[in-house]
């Protein structure tokens, strides 16, 4: 849109920071060659300009999106920023160029390379978010519960409302190991905060027992004659398995009920009375 | 018997009920209770057979006073029996739900003592969940044919979805395999549920806080392949049920032999998964694509062609309706093009507003052209270089890849050029001139 400069922009990796890159580009009527967040260790090859995050400038860009394009475009930009599309910063900058030129019509330009790439990235994020509505697994530690996830996109804000509504009375945490962030919830309060590291404690006896019951259920519900590993892996990709108790330690292949009963009985004999 | 063994027995005997969706109800959480419901439904895991696990699907008991030939739980089958108490069901549901293992409960049961007694047990479990544990997640419950109307009505006020399984698609098949049941005894509770739902929706207009009766509607299931019923019979019944009883979903279950019986396919018969898949596709065409059963099948060709999906079969037999111009065709017409689904059609409508579309643009929209290319033009022109010879057309339309993905065992045995199936395809010469002008 503008003349391309030989510069890259470097910003602090925040959404506001990126909006300031957009501001900078319009102010100098220049298009950078690339935009890097300072944490990603890229851009060493290019000379780069540091873009300071300034909430006044960011606010001006942000407010103009629903006004000059449409409210849906604002949502698309936010979600696009959370996606893990390669070069998402340049993608968003190019999308905003198009949007500020064509107005609300840009949302219909599905055949345009930039618009279609951004839509794809957002779809992927949404799909991953939807997957996690089902694939989050809490462990119960007395009065609190905690889950670990390893998503590709930054989906905590996408799933936040769902879990906080569903578990209104619970105190829980969902820890996003990939992005070092955690969603914390207590009745009446919720927040997403940075959390660099967290190791889940060992499950207590009751927790371990319910995990085993869940595994027992999982193995009993499949129909042997219909076994289809490929279909399962396409609907529940392997990268999710690590955090799913039912898939841990190479689950047995639909064991015959009778063969397991003895083993199970032995395992459950001690200390399981509250479950019987 | 310990909890694990009970759970395994009562899950294994519930697994042939294929419905596991948690869709159709929307309810936000509430302070003091656990759970909510999301209308699109959520899968929490996928079993080794690739089916979605959304609900804790168990039987209250697998003991039964009836003797349906196709059922593992039938009275005369010597199998281990177990039963949950309402307390056990409620506790397990809460514990699994809290850990986000499940979206809710799917509760069914063999018939204990009588249909009324069985229904009372189901009510006891659901009342405990809803009123004592304050559970607001999803509940699907089986309506037991033959139970008293008053009991069924109480059950419906506790559940999101109810279902009565038809299981066998015709009266003759029922007579043969389920002598304790009749079409009448199955349709009666269905009718009751329908009228309760209608009544409830007018109550809701009057009093906003009227309790909801099965807000996610009712569904049913049919077994495919245990009896000689044709796809045409099944699809007609399907269409009738959607219209007459306002069902939300009909599920098809490829018959998996579980008991030896002279009236049934032998124990080593493979479940007809491909046939089941075709029925689901056709069901989809009825519900979302504006097709009618009689357009898809008839007395002369009463079964689906395993090599072609139902929409392709239809399109090949209705060549006069193609090609369709992408930039002008209305939504309903776009939906009839093989390879164009609801999502693609919607994208085309949206993108058309921003400018006219060519084949390159369609690809950008994510429209898969493999099948569609034979049936469309863009700005009056067919895809450049498109050859419509007998082989390209058939190879592109036949669902080889799709079938491979499903790893259907019977596909390997199916020769792709088996005469009887090829006969159902158009003649080579007509295929070559197919899509006039293309
Ligand atoms: S009534 Fe139900 S559980 Fe009992 S034998 Fe028939 S199908 Fe099985």
From TrEMBL, chain A:
Pfam families: DUF4130
Span of domain DUF4130: 87-246
InterPro entries: DNA_repair_put (IPR023875), DUF4130 (IPR025404)
Source organism superkingdom: Bacteria
Protein name: DUF4130 domain-containing protein
The organism's taxonomic lineage, starting at the top: Bacteria, Bacillati, Bacillota, Bacilli, Bacillales
UniProtKB/TrEMBL annotation, chain B:
InterPro entries, per the entry: Aldolase_TIM, DNA_rSAM_put, Endo/Exo/Phosphatase_dom_1, rSAM, rSAM_sf, RuvA_2-like
Keyword annotations of the record: Iron, Iron-sulfur, Metal-binding, S-adenosyl-L-methionine
Domain (Radical SAM core): residue spans on this chain: 59-195
Family annotation (NCBIfam families): rSAM_link_UDG
Listed name of the protein: Radical SAM core domain-containing protein
Lineage of the species this protein comes from: Bacteria, Bacillati, Bacillota, Bacilli, Bacillales
